[in-house]
């Protein structure tokens, strides 16, 4: 019997936590896997450089899903980094907050059924779309835990401390403080650091 591709979510405490970097590290080691990038947009400028990053012009009532190298490769962009890391295919979901989960479902339907798995970089969709394995990423010096991330922290099977050295007690304490600030009572799952990437890949493969 053929099994459906495994869904691994790389989620994060906040923007800039290191989700894309970890997703690329996994894709480098997960041969034949596809990738999904989730971008939540607003019908206005995002407040950064509109020419560089705003996706408001791509938004519609229905989610937009772009697939394939021609549609999604851009050097230096997250989707381009996924291709460079070895992804077999890349899907980019652009949707409003209300339609993100629908966009992820559409993208998952495009993943080739004979692929071993797909890495999905995103967070909020986990409230509506189940994943087989969830890695929650926190930056070593992170000072924020978004409400959308706090709501799904209990689903995490692993925590990855981006930019922290193994055994960094201060970084672990910051994670605990952020969880406490949002009243997240879920137990802290196994914690992985940069040198542990091979062990994390093993955990993903055997889940």
Verbal overview:
By secondary structure, the chain is an alpha/beta fold. The protein has one domain: P-loop containing nucleotide triphosphate hydrolases (Rossmann fold, 3-Layer(aba) Sandwich). The protein contains 8 helices and 8 strands. The chain has helices spanning 19-29, 50-53, 69-72, 78-84, 100-110, 147-150, 169-181, 197-206, and strands at residues 6-12, 34-40, 64-67, 90-95, 117-121, 133-139, 158-162, 191-192. It has an 8-stranded mixed sheet with strand order 3-4-2-5-1-6-7-8, with helices on both faces. Strand 7 (158-162), helix 7 and strand 8 (191-192) form a beta-alpha-beta unit. The protein is globular, with a radius of gyration of 16 Å. It starts with 5 loop residues before the first strand and ends with a helix. The model is unreliable at 47-53 (pLDDT under 50).
Return the CATH class: Alpha Beta
Spans with pLDDT under 50 lasting ≥5 residues?
Answer: 47-53
Give the strand order of the largest sheet, numbering strands 1, 2, ... along the chain: 3-4-2-5-1-6-7-8
The profile of the biggest β sheet is: 8 strands, mixed
The secondary-structure class comes to alpha/beta
**What's the name of the CATH homologous superfamily?**
P-loop containing nucleotide triphosphate hydrolases
Q: What's the helix-strand series?
A: EHEHEHHEHEEHEHEH
Inertia-based shape:
globular
Number of helices: 8
CATH topology: Rossmann fold
In total, the number of strands is 8
* Helix content estimate: 25-40%
What would you report as the Rg, rounded to the nearest angstrom? 16 Å
End-to-end CA span: 18 Å
What is the mean pLDDT? Answer: 88
């Amino acid at each position: 019997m053929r099994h459906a591709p495994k869904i691994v979510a790389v989620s994060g405490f906040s923007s800039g936590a290191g989700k894309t970097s970890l997703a690329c590290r996994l894709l480098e080691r997960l041969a034949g896997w596809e990738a999904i990038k989730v971008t939540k947009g607003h019908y206005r400028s995002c407040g950064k450089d509109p020419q560089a990053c705003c996706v408001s012009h791509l938004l519609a009532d229905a989610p937009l899903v772009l697939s394939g190298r021609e549609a999604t490769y851009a050097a230096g962009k997250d989707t381009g980094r996924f291709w460079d890391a070895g992804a077999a295919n890349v899907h980019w979901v652009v949707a409003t907050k209300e339609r993100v989960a629908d966009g992820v479902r559409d993208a998952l339907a495009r993943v080739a059924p004979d692929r071993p798995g797909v890495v999905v970089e995103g967070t909020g969709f986990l409230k509506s779309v189940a994943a087989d394995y969830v890695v929650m990423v926190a930056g070593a010096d992170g000072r924020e835990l978004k409400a959308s991330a706090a709501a799904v922290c209990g689903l995490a099977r692993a925590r990855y401390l981006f930019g922290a050295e193994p055994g960094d007690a201060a970084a672990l304490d910051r994670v605990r403080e952020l969880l406490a600030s949002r009243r997240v009572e879920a137990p802290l799952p196994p914690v992985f650091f940069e040198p542990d990437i091979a062990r994390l890949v093993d955990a993903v493969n055997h889940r």
